[in-house]
Structure formats: structure tokens, C-alpha cells
Amino acid sequence: MGITLTIVGGIVIISVIAVIGDIITKTAQARPSADQNAMAASLKLLSDRIDALEHQEAERESRIAQLEGEVAFTTKLLEEKHR
Question: Which DSSP string do the residues of 4-33 spell out, in sequence order?
């Protein structure tokens, strides 16, 4: 009888420890840690930076297209004057 109680008691203690460990693990994972908050903030900053760079690139592309048009116009004027 003593051996049975020892075995059952051991199983119960191991199960209780496993349940407590599981609860602690789940609560720790449910709360966002400081690292996750920092990573979210970093991702937001990087996303904003990418948007700003894309906007700058679009502005530069439009300026380049405008300059190309002006150069083409100037070239045509110069060719007509030399004829």
C-alpha cells in the first residue's frame, strides 16, 4: 500500500508541477515583452523611413523626367538654329 501511495503521490506532484509550469509559460508568452515592443517600434520607424525614401525617389524621378524634357527641347532648338 505504501508503494502505491508513493507512486500515485509522485505522479500527482509531477502533474501539478507540469500544470504550474504550463500556466507560467503561457502567461509569460501572452504579455508582450520589452523586446517585442522595441521591435514593433523599430519596424514602424523602418516602415516610415522606407515610405520617406520612396517619396524622395519619386520626386527625383519626376525631376529627372522634367530635365530630360527640357534638354530635349533645348537640343531641338539648337539643331534648328544650326540649320
Answer: HHHHHHHHHHHHHHHHHHHHHHHHHHHSPP
